[in-house]
Amino acid sequence: MPYTITLKDAYKHFTLDQDKVLTPEETVGRFRRKLASLDLDILAETVRIDNGRIGIPVYFSVCGRDAEAVTGTRKQMGKGGTPQQAEASAVMELAERFSFFSFCRDDAHFTLDCWDNLKERAVPLEMIARSVHDTSEDVDKALEIFARLPLRWTWGYNLTRKEAVLIPFDWFFAINEFNGTSAGNCVEEALLQGLCEVVERHVSSLVSRGRLRVPAIDLDTARDPLVREMLAKYRAVGIELVASDFSLNTGIPTVGVLAYDPATFPHRSEIVWTAGTTPDPEKALSRALTEVAQLGGDFDTGSNYVASGLPKFRTLDEAAFIRKAGGTVGLCDLPNLSDANIRVEVENCVDALAGRGMEVLVIDVIHPRLGVPAFYTIIPGAHFRERAAGTSVGMFTAKIMAEKGDPFRALGGLDRMEKALPGRYYVHFYKGMAYLESGRHPEALEAFERALGRDPKEEDIPTILVYAAVCLKELGRYSESIAAARRAEGYDPERTDVFNLMGFCYFKLREHEKAIACFERSIELDPSSAIDYANIASNYRDMGDRERAIHYYRLALEIDPGIGFARENLDRLTMGKTGGGSGPNGHGG
């Protein structure tokens, strides 16, 4: 049913490192009291995880059984300038993800239909084109195909126009994923959080993709006491910081921060690059500084973070366009939309975006039993680093055809799309995906090869090559699969799936040392990849190195106790049995 979101006064009662209507102690206490009244296992515990070197706290909220089943993750991270705020951030992150994914899993929230049948109440087609920045000559034909595409629709609210609207959830989730999910102590707090996150991702994508030389920020112009305290903590341990004005033309302040430790980089730490967006530039810097602490692992633990809004720099030379900035500004030179009333801040941000032709859509995803205000914010036309760049209405329509529903029906739709939009590489790519889903590997391989021959965008070439390599692997053509994966690595050397795939093929060819090297590279890129620890173990098992095999199976199971073949093989080895067992990814070894 359509609904209205009415903003109410929400005055700040806590402004130390973040602006909130409640103190962090009240936030955590209220959340725990609510959980105590429910028969849902959502929060197991909160744990501080930083080692204290910098002194900026980072917390985990460990998921309970019900939350883990819904979100698919075991923990959420929280950050803040104080331990209390970092803990509050961690539990609200859990509330946000649990609420959002519970909403996604409930079919009662959705109507399966097409735009042609809903157009009187649905977002306009122009907004669909804007969401993927499609101004091509194909766009009208592609929109005709989109208009007949069955999608899950749900009611949302347009904060810019102040009206209820039907939103194609599948379409925007394919672009946003869970960027824009938020929760807060009140509606206004949650809305501001989600809106600022999408803006942060948008400007970060533009800066990183365009390698824009944005102005540096003179950190000595910071006036907020806690911000100055955090800056002093970084300086005390020798961490170099470069702050940048990422606000671009949004009218909303965003601060980027690049950080590295000359004493520990690159052998025990990484270059961290992140950003923060809030109505107040001082608080935007505060958010970015706490995010650096969250991602950096105290810059001396050998940990690796997973990049999101901004990519990772492997060398300082790669970061030169940020380190050698286009001029210097003070924090006071950034836009400032702050107010003591969070309602006014939400309105200020919505108005700033409206002045740039961007509208704000929100979906209420509050969990009816948890009761924590939670939303999913969509700003059609916002950029994301890994999505909606170099895309089109046709491409995303083909993607959804291939990924939603029956693959045989998808192939029929893609055949019709090919007639309307002949020669488009992405139609053949998604045909390949549909063939792959239905186990028709020779046809899938042919489709991927045709996609490669249709002048694909360079950034899509490694993905096409990876799936061609998957087909070759499934056909038992392991050496050819490795060759295709190597080509993909040449385009993108930081894809874990490339190294996992090559490792599997080397395992099947009994070239175990090469397999182990590939799985180690995958772990270097993603240290949380439990399956790759298990894959290394299987190679050591087949090499006869029982002790190392046991060690790596145990490492895998510490991260993910649900890897069945790792548990089976570990049990066999610890009981002294030899032979049999399973290999990488659970395939017979």
Provide the fold topology:
Layout lengths: L23 H13 L6 E6 L9 E6 L1 H7 L3 E5 L3 H23 L5 E3 L1 H4 L6 H7 L7 H9 L3 E8 L4 E6 H8 L4 E3 L3 H24 L5 E2 L7 H12 L3 E6 L8 E7 L11 E6 L3 H16 L23 H4 L4 E2 L12 H13 L6 E4 L9 E5 L14 H11 L3 H14 L4 H13 L3 H12 L8 H14 L3 H14 L4 H13 L3 H14 L4 H13 L3 H14 L4 H11 L15
Parallel strand pairs: 8-12
Antiparallel strand pairs: 1-2, 2-3, 4-5, 5-6, 5-13, 7-14, 9-10, 10-11, 13-14
Helix pairs in contact: 1-3, 8-12, 9-10, 13-14, 13-15, 14-15, 15-16, 16-17, 17-18, 17-19, 18-19, 19-20, 20-21, 21-22, 21-23, 22-23
**Could you estimate the helical fraction of the residues in percent?**
40-55%
Strand content: 5-15%
Helix-strand category: alpha+beta
Largest sheet: 6 strands, antiparallel
Our measurement of the CA-to-CA distance between the termini, rounded to an integer number of angstroms, reads 53 Å
Shape type: globular
**Unreliably modeled segments:** none
Helical element count?
23
Question: What's the alpha carbon Rg, rounded to whole Å?
Answer: 25 Å
| Arithmetic mean pLDDT | 94
- Total beta strands: 14
What would you note in describing this structure?
This protein has 589 residues and is of the alpha+beta class. It contains 23 helices and 14 strands. The strands form four sheets. Strands 4, 5, 6, 7, 13 and 14 form a six-stranded antiparallel beta sheet that branches. Strands 1-2-3 form a three-stranded antiparallel beta sheet. The longest helix has 24 residues, at 187-210. It is globular, with a radius of gyration of 25 Å. The termini are far apart.
